[in-house]
């Protein structure tokens, strides 16, 4: 099978970690008889430096023409003084909008080999953590109207948080279908005791729940969700929520695993096109030192194979290889434990690729 992948390395550690994911994908292609063709393009701060904008029209078209997109990370202090309309992060919003990437899947899985790295007590993490947050990605306050005006001699700011019934139904169906393929449990996160958007969210989700009688459904307020993720994360299977709540909760959940460097993500459209990236940032303070953890990016590549290319065996092969590397005691600095062998970014990529081959 032939697939075209647009690669957006981005800023900071982005080029280093993406290179390891491509290395692993090449190994998968060789073993399973596929051909992956890569087209590289700039995004974020490096694009601002070279082209004056966070993403060019040509780079955006390259993303549209691909079967999938692999992203590293964008941004850094170097571009903090840029005008708001050309900040590196603007490129991510633009790609999500142009590609119709409305569903963000963020798995939180604690590898048993890394249970000591979790900040939670062993009696909690010992039960295993394996949950998935489904975040609506193209609506809500991030895409609403933002205004700052002067009233009575002081500045006043307003951010509007719009949601339509169709937007909620679209992400809701993704969550229900995903829950069907996992543990059959779905919790819908909102703030229906305060927000009109959340009341519409809850009403729409209740209507959908009638169609998915095989999925155990529940409502949970966002503040309670934040507490329960720390108190008893094993109670959750799939969580679905709107854009801003999902952004915050998925970052909280990522720390349950002990390192944000282990966390992959997928942003999906209504078709097979998706963008895959680790959830961490560009970490410019450790860039070009060969010490970044590439496993979140490598696991994102596995999600690409699973969700966009319908290659479950190949995705399983990557995930199994990561497990074997951890079993063999290899660690990058962020997940280093006593008795283990510390390796760099490139070496970790080599180790995963070797276990696939």
TrEMBL record:
Residues engaged in binding substrate: 96, 106, 135, 223
MF (Gene Ontology): 3-isopropylmalate dehydrogenase activity; magnesium ion binding; NAD binding
Cofactor binding: number and manner: Binds 1 Mg(2+) or Mn(2+) ion per subunit.
Domain of life: Bacteria
Site, Important for catalysis: residue positions: 142, 191
Catalytic activity: (2R,3S)-3-isopropylmalate + NAD(+) = 4-methyl-2-oxopentanoate + CO2 + NADH
UniProt cross-references to InterPro entries, sorted A to Z: IsoCit/isopropylmalate_DH_CS, IsoPropMal-DH-like_dom, Isopropylmalate_DH
Compartments, record wording: Cytoplasm
Cofactor(s) recorded in Swiss-Prot or TrEMBL: Mg(2+); Mn(2+)
EC number(s) reported in the record: 1.1.1.85
Record-level GO BP terms: L-leucine biosynthetic process
Keywords, ordered alphabetically: Amino-acid biosynthesis, Branched-chain amino acid biosynthesis, Cytoplasm, Leucine biosynthesis, Magnesium, Manganese, Metal-binding, NAD, Oxidoreductase
Cellular component aspect of the GO annotation: cytosol
Pathway: Amino-acid biosynthesis; L-leucine biosynthesis; L-leucine from 3-methyl-2-oxobutanoate: step 3/4
Binding positions (NAD(+)): 76-89, 281-293
Chain positions recorded as Mg(2+) binding sites: 223, 247, 251
Alphabetized Pfam families for the sequence: Iso_dh (PF00180)
Domain Isopropylmalate dehydrogenase-like: 4-352
Function: Catalyzes the oxidation of 3-carboxy-2-hydroxy-4-methylpentanoate (3-isopropylmalate) to 3-carboxy-4-methyl-2-oxopentanoate. The product decarboxylates to 4-methyl-2 oxopentanoate.
Family named by the database record: Belongs to the isocitrate and isopropylmalate dehydrogenases family. LeuB type 1 subfamily.
Summary of subunit composition and partner proteins: Homodimer.
Protein's name according to its UniProt entry: 3-isopropylmalate dehydrogenase
Source organism of the structure: Candidatus Ruthenibacterium merdavium
